[in-house]
Structure formats: structure tokens, C-alpha cells
Amino acid sequence: MKTFVATRKKRRCTCIHCKELYQPDCRNRHHQKYCSKPQCRQASKRASQRRWLSSSKGEGYFNGPDNAARVREWRKEHPGYWKRMSAQRDNALQDVFPSQVVDNKTDKDILSRQALQDICSLQPALIIGLIANLTGSTLQDEIAQTTRRLIVSGSDILGFSPHTTTF
Q1: 10 Å Cβ neighbour count for 15?
Q2: What's the sign of the alpha-carbon dihedral 158, 159, 162, 163?
Q3: Residues 150-162: pLDDT tens digits?
Q4: Strand, helix or coil for residue 85
Q5: Can you give the pLDDT of all 167 residues of the chain as single tens digits?
Q6: What separation in angstroms does the CA of 133 have from each of 20, 60, 71, 142?
Q7: DSSP secondary structure code for residue 139 in this structure
Q8: Alpha-carbon span 130 to 52, nearest angstrom
Q9: Which residue blocks in the chain are alpha helix, DSSP H?
Q10: How far, in Å, CA of 49 to CA of 38, rounded?
Q11: Alpha-carbon span 15 to 39, nearest angstrom
Q12: pLDDT digits (tens, 9 = 90+) for 87-111
């Protein structure tokens, strides 16, 4: 038994701004008049705003004492609305720490003899030493446990799942 699937022919429309053919969204085919290019979307928004402002609802919406009172009332109900947004943008993910002066003479000697790139090329030893200093332990089991916890925490911060590794 053969089944026939009804298929609609996809119709292309002409954008009223750029005059080029485009494939309209199937959900908005009956009233979509602009394509999805940024300049055509801007033209669509301008036309939509023009239509709204000339309608009975939009006529004088932003003008007059009634609208000024409406805005004042809204601002009383939402104090500090515009200040909260700038405060959120200013919060950094990490705090900036001032540089610290090296107190230990042996640290100065080591740092002056080797360039930072040379020191960091020994990353496995650097990471193990860092974790040992943070935990206060040189036991491999504790370092491995801390390493797993740091990997999971770092992966959460960066937004990706950690690769499963065995230590």
C-alpha cells in the first residue's frame, strides 16, 4: 500500500525593502513582508513603529502630561532600575590583585636567573607544587583528589564538561 504525502511547494516572496527573493518563515508566511537581512529588519521595525504611532493607541503615547505622570509613577515603582544594570556590568568575575613584593631572597635569586617562560615550561611540576602548597600535603592521594576537584570547578566556571581522566 502506497502512502502519499502532501507536500506544499515552497513559495518565495519579494522583500519590500531590498526587492530580493527570500524564503519566508512557514509560521509567518501570510504576513511576512521583509527578509531577514539586518537592514531589512531595521526597515521592518521602522515601518511597524510608524504604523503603531499613527494608530489610535499609539497616537500621542509618549507626549503630554498623562504620559509624563505614567513615567513618573513607573519610576517610583522601580527605583534604581537604570542604576542596577550598570552595576551588574561593572562586576568582574575576578578581583584584581595588586602585585606583591617578593620577600624571600632565594625566590628573588631563582626568579632573576630563569625567565618566566622557562619556569612555566615545567607545568606538571608547577601544578603539583602549587596544589601541594595549597593543600599543605605532599601525599599523592590528596593531591589527586584536589586535582579532580579543581578540574571540575574550573570546568563549571568555563562551561564545559571535564574529560574523564584517571589519576
Answers
A1: 19
A2: negative
A3: 888 888 888 776 5
A4: helix
A5: 556 555 566 788 999 999 999 999 888 888 899 999 999 999 999 999 999 888 888 877 778 888 888 888 998 998 887 776 655 555 555 556 566 565 555 555 555 566 655 666 667 777 888 888 888 888 888 888 888 888 888 888 887 765 544 44
A6: 65, 68, 58, 12
A7: -
A8: 63
A9: 38-54, 64-77, 81-90, 105-113, 116-120, 123-135, 140-158
A10: 17
A11: 11
A12: 555 555 555 656 656 555 555 555 5
Q: Can you tell me the distance from the alpha carbon of 74 to that of 80, in angstroms, rounded to the nearest whole number?
A: 11
CA distances from residue 68 to 52, 99, 106, 155 in whole angstroms, order as listed:
19, 52, 70, 49
Chain center to CA of 15? 32
**What whole-number percentage of the chain has pLDDT above 70?**
67
- Which helix H or strand E contains 101, and what residues bound it? none
All three cell numbers of 17: 525593502
Strand, helix or coil for residue 14: strand
Residue corresponding to grid cell 544594570: 85
Distance from C-alpha of 74 to C-alpha of 112, rounded to nearest angstrom: 62
Q: How far apart are CA 117 and CA 127, in angstroms?
A: 15
